[in-house]
Amino acid sequence: MSVDVEITDLYMENLDLGLNLQPSERLDVGLYAENMVVGLQLSNIDYVLDIFGLLRGLEVGAVVNTTDDGGGNNYLDVVTLLAMSVNNGDIDLDTNNTDLNVSGLDIQLDATGIALFDNIASIIVDALLDVMLSLFNDLITTLVDYLIMPLVSEFLSELSIGVSLENIDGNGANIDFTATPDYLNTTATGLSVRLATNASAPTPPATVPTALGSLYVDGIAPIMPATTPDGSTFDFGVALSANVLNQILVAAHDSGLTTMELGPGFYQGSSTLNDAILEGDLVGIRITPASAPYVTLGNAEGAAGTLYWYNLTVSLDLYRESWGEYRTIFGATINVEVPFEINSTFGGYLALSIEQLPIIEVTQTDASGILPLPASFINSTVEYVIPMVLPLLANQLQVIPLPSIFDHTLFMEEFWVEGGSDSNNTLALAGKLIPIALVQNAAAPTTNIDDVTYRQTTVEMESVTGGIVSTNSVTLNNGAVNIRISGTNPNPEYGGLQYRFKIDGGGWSAWKERSSIDIDSFLAGDHSVRICSRSALMKEETDCPVVEFTTTVAE
Question: For domain 442-555, which architecture applies?
Answer without folding.
Answer: Sandwich (2.60)
